[in-house]
């Protein structure tokens, strides 16, 4: 059995979570000795698709014409399309219809969490849907004293200076406006937002917020994985203010790096993470500020070891093993397949 890991339009999504997911899938296959190809000219039994661009739709149709099986990853939902780019809320219902068409081409659909599975099932999609994490590379994302030193030297941070980081596009859904508001309320803390979006694509109020951000906020733009690993090592808190996710790979990375984590208390994280036990959560800006202060001054206990135990279950090799179970089921029957994720 051979998998065709379709990489069409990878350059478009390379710097996004979908791009990371594709690379994770490739490594998962390699670590579990799953035969795969990325060349459409090679023989394959199952095609695996990750994007919702026309080239993926065309590839799925061609595969079906050849009587091949189709795995379609459901990374996107209408809910996480909203509050992103200009006009996204208006186009969200049309986006929903388009992704339903895309995912409907799959013999099965894989989506990162039970939460996103519930959303897709609610759309009326009739194909089998499996929840399987995008995973995290625990062999790569490990704390490093040398990495911490590189990070703090690069950004000219004093040894005593507290640093809060976040990662994502410059979009409201990711919580960038609240990030800037918190920075204004906490001038004694350095806030660094990694990631980039062309400002022409986002609403004017986001453009204004970034332009008027206080001096304690830094926007380095998109950085390499090595640099991000250094940032996790050298900062004091990973602040994830997202309003909606299908998983959030950067959250898994932060947990793997054993950095303190504070997230917005949203439905996707209600089942997997308990506030004050696994990670810290907040809802209002006042709550965020209070918990940030207490995490930074040490009055809230570290939860990094407990959180790491949870993320260990999402190591890429373990994910690849579960992918193998799914692939095997496709050449047999989906009936009775119980994937304990």
Short description:
The protein has 2 domains: 3-135 and 315-330, Glycogen Phosphorylase B (Rossmann fold, 3-Layer(aba) Sandwich), CATH 3.40.50; 145-312, Rossmann fold (3-Layer(aba) Sandwich). Helices cover 42% and strands 14% of the residues.
Q: Report the end-to-end length measured between terminal Cα atoms.
A: 23 Å
Strand-and-helix sequence, N→C? EHHEEHEHHEHEHEHEHEHEHEEHHH
- DSSP strand tally: 12
**Overall geometry:** globular
Strand-helix topology:
Elements: E1 3-5, H1 10-13, H2 17-31, E2 36-37, E3 46-49, H3 54-65, E4 69-73, H4 78-81, H5 88-104, E5 108-111, H6 114-122, E6 129-131, H7 145-154, E7 163-167, H8 176-185, E8 190-194, H9 204-211, E9 217-221, H10 225-234, E10 237-240, H11 249-256, E11 261-264, E12 280-282, H12 285-297, H13 304-312, H14 316-330
Structural descriptors:
single chain; 341 residues; alpha/beta; Rossmann fold; 2 domains; transferase
Structure in words:
There is one protein chain. The chain folds into two domains: 149 residues, 3-Layer(aba) Sandwich (Rossmann fold); 168 residues, Rossmann fold, CATH 3.40.50. The model has no long low-confidence stretch (mean pLDDT 95). A six-stranded parallel β-sheet has the order 2-1-3-4-5-6, sandwiched between helices. It is α/β, with parallel strands linked by helices and 341 residues long. The chain contains 14 helices and twelve strands.
């Amino acid at each position: 059995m051979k998998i065709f890991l379709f990489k069409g339009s990878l350059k478009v999504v390379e710097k996004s979570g979908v791009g990371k997911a594709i690379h994770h899938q490739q490594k998962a296959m390699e670590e579990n000795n799953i035969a795969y190809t990325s060349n459409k000219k090679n023989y394959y039994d199952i095609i695996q698709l990750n994007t919702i661009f026309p080239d993926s739709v065309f590839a799925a149709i061609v595969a079906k014409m050849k009587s091949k099986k189709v795995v379609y990853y459901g990374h996107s939902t209408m809910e996480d399309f909203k509050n992103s780019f200009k006009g996204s809320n208006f186009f969200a219902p049309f986006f929903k219809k388009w992704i339903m068409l895309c995912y409907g081409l799959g013999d099965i659909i894989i989506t990162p969490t039970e939460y996103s599975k519930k959303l897709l099932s609610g759309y009326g999609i009739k194909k089998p849907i499996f929840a399987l994490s995008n995973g995290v590379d625990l062999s790569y994302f490990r704390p490093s004293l040398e990495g911490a030193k590189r990070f703090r030297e690069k950004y000219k941070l004093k040894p005593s200076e507290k640093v809060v980081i976040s990662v994502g596009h410059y979009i409201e859904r990711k919580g960038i406006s609240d990030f800037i508001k918190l920075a204004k309320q906490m001038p004694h803390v350095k806030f660094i937002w990694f990631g980039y979006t062309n400002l022409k694509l986002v609403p004017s109020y986001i453009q204004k917020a970034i332009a008027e951000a206080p001096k304690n906020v830094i926007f380095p733009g998109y950085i390499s994985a090595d640099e991000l690993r250094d940032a996790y090592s050298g900062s004091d808190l990973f602040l994830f203010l997202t309003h909606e996710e299908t998983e959030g790979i950067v959250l898994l990375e932060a947990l793997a790096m054993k950095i303190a984590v504070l997230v917005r208390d949203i439905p996707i994280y209600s089942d997997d993470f308990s506030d004050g036990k696994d990670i810290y959560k907040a809802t209002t800006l006042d709550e965020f500020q209070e918990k940030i202060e207490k995490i930074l001054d040490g009055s809230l206990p570290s939860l990094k070891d407990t959180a790491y135990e949870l993320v260990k279950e999402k190591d890429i090799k373990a994910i690849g093993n579960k992918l193998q179970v799914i692939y095997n089921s496709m050449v047999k029957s989906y009936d009775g397949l119980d994937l304990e994720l």
